[in-house]
Write a structure and sequence with these properties.
Length: about 230
């Protein structure tokens, strides 16, 4: 079932250690088949060195296992909530990449300090609030997704394809698992550059809005002209 999607999700999970985004098993990638309403996701706690495409787990949009001989990632309920809320996305990634997670542990959104950020994320990358004790006790992973969705009520998830969750770490998404991983790599680099920029200049100001707009919209939207047709 969904063998092609399993292969794609497997390949993108393997990109995480290759790109330096995960240590041990601290991350997961998923992808969705919108027609079937099924999600393929990494199995929980399985070592990347031994993982195979057939180890990927298929779940429905309630998080129930449809196919697979392993338990799905413990973050599956978060992924499922994002797929249900953001119909434009086809892939979700969660990591504990060190620079992005440092901003999460500081409970700070990542300001736009340069054009690298503006090329991919429109405006600050939001830091999602901490969950209450009741939310944690009730359904921690599901409510992590709910809190992300809440943070994007006034934020376009296509224009800002990621966030960091306070005291936790980053989540990114995209049209496909590959694009979601690409955005995870960019988020980590942006987080690193922002931290270094603040260290170099404690009085740093955000990039002027006109420059942010220019860099974002030359790559996105109806009048984009970056790259080849």
């Amino acid at each position: 079932m969904l063998e092609e999607l399993k292969q794609k999700v497997y390949e993108q999970n393997m990109e995480l250690p290759k790109r330096g985004l995960v240590t041990y098993t601290w991350g997961n990638v998923s992808g969705i088949d919108r027609e079937k309403g099924l999600v393929v996701i990494k199995p929980s706690g399985v070592d990347y060195e031994t993982m195979k495409p057939e180890d990927m787990v298929v779940v429905d949009l309630d998080g129930n296992v449809v196919e697979g001989h392993y338990r799905p990632s413990s973050d599956t309920p978060t992924h499922v909530e994002l797929y249900k809320a953001f119909p434009e996305i086809g892939g979700v990634v969660h990591t504990h990449s060190p620079w992005a997670t440092s901003w999460a542990q500081a409970a700070r959104s990542i300001p736009c300090y340069g054009t690298t950020h503006a090329d991919y994320f429109y405006g600050p990358i939001p830091c999602v609030r901490n969950l209450t004790k009741e939310e944690i006790d009730e359904a921690y992973e599901k409510n992590t997704g709910v809190s992300i969705i809440e943070a994007f009520r006034d934020n376009n998830p296509v224009y800002c394809p990621g966030c960091i969750c306070a005291n936790h770490g980053p989540f990114t998404w995209g049209k496909s698992p590959a694009e979601a991983v690409h955005n995870a790599v960019v988020l980590e680099e942006v987080a690193k550059m922002a931290a270094r920029a603040e260290a170099l200049n404690p009085d740093i100001k955000e990039t002027p809005q006109a420059m942010q707009d220019k860099h974002f919209y030359r790559k996105h939207g109806a009048n984009a002209y970056y790259g080849q047709k």
